[in-house]
Amino acid sequence: MAFNKSVRLLMATVxxxxxxxxxxxxxxxxxxxxxxxxxxxxxxxxVLIAENSIALDAITITANKLETSVIDAPAxxxxxxxxxxxxxxxxxxxxxxxxxxxxxxxxxxxxxVQEPIIRGLTGDRVVVRVDGARANMSVGHKGRFxxxxxxxxxxxxxxxxxxxxxxxxxxxxxxxxTTKDANDLLDPGQKIxxxxxxxxxxxxxxxxxxxxxxxRPTDNTDILVSVxxxxxxxxxxxxxxxxxxxxxxxxxxxxxxxxxxxxxxxxTLSVQRYSDxxxxxxxxxxxxxxxxxxxxxxxxxxxxxxxxxxxSYHDLGNDWIDANVNAYGMRTDLDExxxxxxxxxxxxxxxxxxxxxxxxxxxxAGRELAVTVGGELYQDSxxxxxxxxxxxxxxxxxxxTIYGVYVDNAFAxxxxxxxxxxxxxxxxxxxxxxxxxxxDSAISPRFSxxxxxxxxxxxxxxxxxxxxxxxxxxxxxxxxxxxxNNFVANPDLEAExxxxxxxxxxxxxxxxxxxxxxxxxKVAYFxxxxxxxxxxxGATFGSSETKSVNVPEAxxxxxxxxxxxxxxxxxxxxxxxRLRGENTRTGENLANIPADxxxxxxxxRFEDYGVELGGRANMVDRLTRIASxxxxxxxxxxxxFARWDASETVPGLTVNAGIDNLFDHxxxxxxxxxxxxxRNFKISASMKF
Length: 689
Fold this sequence. Notes:
mainly beta; 5-stranded mixed sheet; 7 helices; 34 strands; 8% helix; 53% strand; transmembrane beta strand
C-alpha cells in the first residue's frame, strides 16, 4: 500500500535528515561577522539577532530535578507549551499528545476513560503528576485522567525508565501536568486581572466556558481562581454515524496562591476539584455494544479532589541549598449506577504523600558537581463497594505504602563532557483484608554520559533501571468478572524490573538558514528489558478465569525522533517513532505496542497582523504486531489551525480556530473498537481584562 510505504520511508529518513541539516549548520555563513552557532552552544539561550528570534528553549525538571534545557538533556523529553496548547484547543489528553513520538492514548475518545501508553507501557508503569502530586488511579476499563485542559500551562512527557528521579513505577515514563498561576497571566505592573474564554466544537456541539480571576493582593502574594464548565453531545465519526454515549458534562474549579516569603523562599498552595457526570457502558474502552450482561449501561459520576502544598528555596548566592518540598493529597471517586436496576458500584482511591529534594553544588577544580539528594513517601488506600458491601472483584479493599530515597550526581567533566550517576532505593508494603500481604524492595541505578562533539551535535548514552510494585487490583482482584469467567487473586506476583539502554543525539543550531532562526532535533534508539512483566491472562470469552501473572522476560525496543525549526515567522516540526515488543521466552507480541507513525506540522506568522496559520498531519501505519484480535488499518488525519491576537483591534482579545480531521476520515486508534471523531470545526475566544 502506497501510504504504508510512505510512512516507512519517512521514518527511515528522519535520522538522516536531522544529521544532514545540522551538519549544514557547520558550513553556514556567519551572520554579522559572528559565529552565532558556536556562541549559542556555550550558553543556555539562542543568540538573539533578529527581532523575530525564537523564545528560549523549553526547560525540563523531570530529567534530573535541575532546570535543564530539553535540547541539552541526555534523555527523550517532549514539552507541550502554552502556545501549542492554544493551537490544539484540546478537550482531552489525546488532543494534547497526538503525534508525539513513542506515545499513544488507549481507551478511545471518551475523555475520562483514556490511558497513556509510553513506549508500549501503560497503567501504573507511567507516573502521572499534577503540580507534583501523584495521580495514581488505575482500574480496568475506567480511565485515569480527570483534568481540565483550560488550566494547563504545560505538559511534559519523559519517555523511558525514570524511577530514580520520578518515583517507583516509572518504567515507561512520566507525564507531568503543570497548571497556570497568577504570574503567568498578569502583565508587568498589573495588580488584578480576569480572563473569560468560550469555545465551541462542531463534531459534538461541545460548549466550553472558563472564567479566571487573578491578582497580587500584596507585593509578595498572588492568587488565581478558575472555574470551567464543558458540555458536549454524542460526536459523529467520519462515516457520519453518531457514537452513542460519548457525551460529557464536567465542571472544574481551581484555586492557586503563592507567597514569596523572601527573595529565596516561596510557598504555593494549589486546590482543584473536578466533577463529571454522564452515561457510559460498563466497559467504555472496549468498543463493545451495550448489553444486559457484560457491558451494561451505567450512570457514572467521576470526582477528583487534590491539594498540593509546595515550598521552594532557591538562592543564587547559596551553593549548598536549592530545595523543593511537596506535600499532597488526592481523592478519586468513581460512582456508577446500573440503569436497568440501580445497582450501585463505588470505587475510591486516596493518595497522600510527601516528596522533596535538595541540590548542593561543589566546585571541583573549576568544574561543577551538582549533588541532588531526595526522597518520597506516599500511601494509596482503595475501597470498592457494591450496594454498600465490599466486593473483591470490583476494586478490592487494599493499601500500599511506598517510600524511596535517592542520590543523583551531575558532573561537568569538561566543557564538552557531562556525566550523571544516580541510585535509588525503593520499598513497598502491600496488604488487603483477608489476603496475604507482600513487601519488597529494590535498588535502581542510572547513569548517562553526553559529549558535545561539535557546537551543534551532542550524542549521549544512558542506562536506567526502574521498579514497579504490583497494583492492588492486579494482586488481589477475585470473584465474578463476566458470565463464565472469574478473577483469581495472585498474591505471589513479583514486582516488575526494567533495564533500559538509550543511545541518542541532540542537535542544536541557531542562525542556520537565516538570522535568528533555530533548529532543534532529538533522535534516539532504546532497548528496554523487563523482568517479571505483569500481564493479565484469560480476560476473553471461553476462558474460565482471569489472572495477573508474571511474564519472565519481555523486551521493547524502538526508534524515536523529534525535529523542529523556527524562524519566528515560519515554523515546522516532524516527529516519528517505530516500536517493537515481545515476550522473549515465547516470541509472542506484547499488548499495547503502538503502530509506526509520523507527524508533521508547520505554519506561518503574519506578525504585522497578529495572525498565525498552520496545519498538521498525523500518519499511522497499520497495526499488525498485536497480542490478540485483528489487525487495525492505518490512517492519516490532517488538521488546520489559526490564531489571531486581536489586541490592537480589541484590547485583550485572542481568537483560536481550527479544523481537526479535515477530510472526515473514519478511523480508530489501535484495537479500541470505538471510532474517533470526524471532521471537527473548533473556535474559541478569550478576553483578558
